[in-house]
Amino acid sequence: MKMKSLVMAASVAALAAGGAWAEEGKVKVGMITTLSGGGAGLGIDVRDGFLLATKMAGNENLEVVVEDDQRKPEIAVQLADKMIQSEKVDVMTGIIWSNLAMAVVPAATAQGKFYLSPNAGPSALAGKGCNPLYFNVAWQNDNLHEAAGAYANDAGHKNSFILAPNYPAGKDALTGYKRTYEGEVAGEVYTDLGQTDYAAEIAQIRASGADSVFFFLPGGMGISFLKQYANSGVELPVVGPAFSFDQGILQAVGEAAVGIKNTSQWNKDLDNAANKTFVEAFQEEYDRLPSLYASQGYDTANLLLSAMEKADVSDAEAFGAALKEADFDSVRGKFSFGNNNHPIQDYYVREVVKEGDVYTNKLIGPSLTDHADAYAADCKM
Amino acid sequence: MSFILLVEQVLNGVQSGVMLFLMAAGLTLIFGVMGLINLAHGSLYMVGAFAAAAVAAATGSFLLALVAALAAAALAGCLIEMTVIRRLYDRDHLDQVLATFAMILIFSEGTRFFFGSFPLFLDIPAALAGPVTLPGGIQYPLYRLVIIGVGLAIAAGLFLLIARTRIGIQIRAGEADREMIAALGVDIAKLYTLVFALGAALAGLAGALVGAIQSVQVGMGEPVLILAFVVIVIGGIGSIKGALIGALLVGLTDTLGSVLLPLFFANFMEASAATSVGSSLASMSIYILMAGVLLFKPTGLFGEA
Asked: Where is the Leucine-binding protein domain positioned along the sequence (chain A) (predicted)?
């Protein structure tokens, strides 16, 4: 009897000690991303990039829980609640779409959780809504569009027709383009989110007398638009952000996209060691070329891992400072955070080409260098 | 707003209407003859598009792809009719909605299981690519004209089928009084399977034709399904003529609304506010149209009380 209770006490003590030792240094990450429905390709790429980085690092203190938000804000909110309250995650990440981000991020940071955005970068969270717990590892929504505007100036476009879907990132897109673009706007159209038939818009482009087209239509919307545009007889040059020309979409668009210039903060042929490792490892692991979304997921994981080396996630100030240092090898080359925890980085112009059987992007040149976002001044941090 | 732009937008509206008609015709037949609300119709549209994409990638022939779309959708239709739908005819509409909604989920996940989550490539054949110049100097994509042609041909074919053939008589009789034709010796089970497969084939064809100019991805059928329901409510349940008129109305309202409303608001608002308000109203316009029609004709334009 005495032996039994002694053994019991000893094992309970060991378990408690073991449990306590295991808690320190461990980080649980809740990833809510879009794995089904029309925009699934983006979420899958982000998840695959993120998990590749965690696998390559082999850090046993990092645990990742992945859930599918199906591109629905109400589901994302439910999943966020579940992750914070029942899974007890320390850090959250993963959201692709800005409308879902606006639904989840403010609540998550209010509950003391770090949020690292691998994609969505709404202007509201870059300016007045900035938060020491919120870091954006991709870009602020306007940035790629600002780079497109700068390229349009370089290319001599004087009268652009611009279109985007009617949702926060769409509005940010056209605002961003107009911020750097110096020519006239022949027409400005907001389409429905999820719209698949652009015949009406293409007819308007034809009638507007524009000399170029700028559009932001991520996912399936972009595929539809490009296919329809290519067959419409309208021959105007097209510029867009990388979102409509990413690796996942190009195969579905095919010939219709070749020759179109697009802007991005990353391309697979960027010349640095981290990027070469990333592209090779991604191809070997998943048997496909990575897209910019995958590179963003990969960088987010590496940022998190770098912070975990320096501080404990339970110490919010120290961990936040460690994240802000951004002391990791980004696949983009140089990478640093501004005062509002959004990236200051270079943006490039790429052209869609066909390499063998595969449609992909080729780097043409830089568009904006060391570019910060336009909302940093509104952030009180 | 030039005349050329207007004509082009009208053509766009007609084309979008004709595609909706293919979906709505199947849906209205199924609802009219069998009294069944079939939410899985959008999934059959998706099945047609995926079958076409797969066959086009394997053989390179668009024609074969279309045939494959018809066959695959009809087959899928027969299969679900014989296994699931058959048990729903005598049930409450809500039970039908629940069961067919489950079918949507099964089809979506099943398609993702076989084809992956990324969109598939389906392109129009080179012979139909590019624009043609219509009288008046209007440039219009050839493929869209072909779609209008195919849709109208199918409408004519359906009219002939319903009005002039034996099957058509049975379908019309079934819409009027289901029990009576069973009592008169018509094999109801076969008739229902046939009607369901016909509706499914039409949806699959629409999916293949439209998938070539849009993206072939999981979940592509649901937005079209909602519009198709609006069409059959406007046109009247069970009426093919109603489906055609309703579809053309919805297509034209949607297209012309999205173009004309922002222009209208630009008269007293600045540009980006006008486009914002105009496009929001435009996306509501077809539902406002539906409400308007129902106010005056609660059973739809050509429906029976």
From this structure: 26-356
